[in-house]
């Protein structure tokens, strides 16, 4: 039987293996344009989920109750100071709200409602991105337009706008004048029936809660604020 030579049985050199690996389509790095497309698709999916699962049901209920203003405050999943947990048992359990929880320093006319977001995809790192906030507002405005409403105020938010450019687009009526966490708004022009004004941004909210000792304390943290005003 003819034996196998050393040359035939010796494994390929490091250089040969590296060249073969780099030339293989299955092992090549994902092109940047594909990563960018995936990022945009994931961002759209996350913002659309918040709109469909939480924002639209709340707005539909508010409209049925005849409310003209709605302010929704969403706590990102990793803002621990505003995420209530139960220390009982082996593992801590996420709770829907703190004992005695009250939103403070906020105009009652805004009808504020606070909800907690869950999952790594709803982190503050994601929601602090201006592109995510702008896309959520664009989706919200499209929903109102599909229902026959006229969206007033700013032009359609630019999803790719930079934070500096987006800040320049803020309406004067949306700029708050508060030290710390005190909330106030300048007087806005009234809207007519069928008109709507929207605003989505990161704000700080203060909660008064009852701690484990039965005493009240105040906690502050960043939230995603979705504000809607409908014409009467």
Topology of this protein?
Elements: H1 6-9, H2 14-23, H3 32-64, E1 69-75, E2 85-86, E3 93-94, E4 102-104, E5 112-116, H4 124-127, H5 130-146, E6 150-151, H6 163-168, E7 195-210, E8 216-230
Parallel strand pairs: 1-5, 6-7
Antiparallel strand pairs: 1-8, 2-3, 4-7, 7-8
Task: Please tell me about this protein's structure.
The chain is built from six helices and eight strands. The chain has 232 residues and is an alpha/beta fold. Strands 1, 4, 5, 6, 7 and 8 form a six-stranded mixed beta sheet that branches. Residues 4-8, 87-92 and 161-186 have low confidence and may be disordered.
Q: What's the N-to-C terminus distance?
A: 96 Å
> Can you give the mean pLDDT?
76
Helix count, DSSP H or I runs of 4 or more residues: 6
Shape: flat
In terms of structural class, how would the helical and strand content be classed? alpha/beta
Q: State the share of residues found in helices, binned by percent.
A: 25-40%
Order of helices and strands: HHHEEEEEHHEHEE
Query: How is the quaternary structure best described?
Result: single chain
């Amino acid at each position: 039987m003819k034996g196998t030579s050393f040359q035939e049985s010796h494994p390929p050199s490091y250089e040969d293996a590296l060249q073969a690996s780099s030339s293989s389509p299955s092992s090549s790095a994902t092109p940047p344009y594909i990563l960018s497309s995936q990022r945009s698709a994931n961002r759209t999916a996350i913002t659309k989920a918040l709109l469909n699962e939480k924002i639209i049901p709340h707005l539909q209920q508010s409209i049925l109750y005849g409310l003209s203003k709605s302010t929704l405050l969403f706590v990102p999943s990793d803002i621990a100071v505003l995420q209530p947990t139960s220390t009982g048992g082996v593992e801590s359990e996420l709770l829907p709200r703190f004992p005695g929880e009250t939103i403070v320093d906020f105009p009652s006319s805004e009808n504020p409602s606070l909800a907690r977001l869950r999952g790594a995809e709803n982190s503050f790192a994601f929601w602090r991105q201006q592109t995510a906030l702008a896309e959520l507002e664009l989706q919200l405005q499209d929903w109102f337009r599909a229902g026959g409403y006229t969206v007033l105020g700013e032009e359609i938010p630019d999803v790719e706008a930079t934070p500096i450019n987006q800040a320049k687009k803020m309406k004067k009526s949306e700029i708050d004048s508060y030290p710390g966490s005190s909330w106030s708004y300048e007087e806005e022009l009234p809207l007519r029936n069928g008109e709507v004004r929207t605003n989505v941004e990161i704000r700080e909210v203060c909660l008064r809660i009852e701690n484990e000792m039965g005493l009240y304390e105040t906690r502050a943290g960043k939230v995603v604020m979705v504000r809607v005003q409908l014409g009467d």
